[in-house]
Amino acid sequence: MAKQYKLTPKRLQELQEELVYLKTVREREVAEQIKEARSFGDLSENSEYDEAKNEQGKLYSRIAEVEEVLANYVVIEETAVSENAVSLGSQVTVEDEETGEQETYRIVGSQEADPMNGRISEDSPFGKALLGKEVGQKVEVEAPMGMLHYVLKELHKN
Which of 112, 12, 10 is nearest to 72 (CA)? Predict the structure, then answer.
């Protein structure tokens, strides 16, 4: 069975638009680069041609990746879980029990994860630990440096 990718409706639309762009505009640009590089003569010593072919490989790789996601996605439905429990799409604020520091995160599918910008994948250890929790509950996350302890302080469904 193929892996299912969990996407928000917004991310689904972004991927669909990206695929159209890659298959139309970007593919034509790369084809033009290859055509131009071929006009320079001997392909065995033509760095422009090599670069254009590398770009074409990257393009086709990205197209295949986006098509794989679009062939196996599930749109995140937030109504399937209790309004009081953390689920995909939830925004949470947690407090580190040791330091008292608070951090806010949004729980997203793996295709949308961006930890540096507060978007945590539900497949990550932290995301898995948060799913299903309610405000006031303790969250334990196993990390390389040992067990981390948090308390769920706030939960917002958007």
Answer: 12
Q: What is the pLDDT of residues 92-145, one digit of tens each?
A: 999 998 899 999 999 888 888 888 998 998 889 999 899 889 889 999 998 888
Measure the N-to-C terminal CA separation of the chain; round to a whole number of Å. 31
Confidence (pTM)? 0.62
Across the beta sheet with 146-157, what order do the strands follow? 119-121, 102-108, 90-96, 146-157, 138-143
DSSP string, 44-91: GG-HHHHHHHHHHHHHHHHHHHHHHHHHSEEE--GGGS-TTB--TTEE
Closest CA to 118 of 141, 102, 139: 102
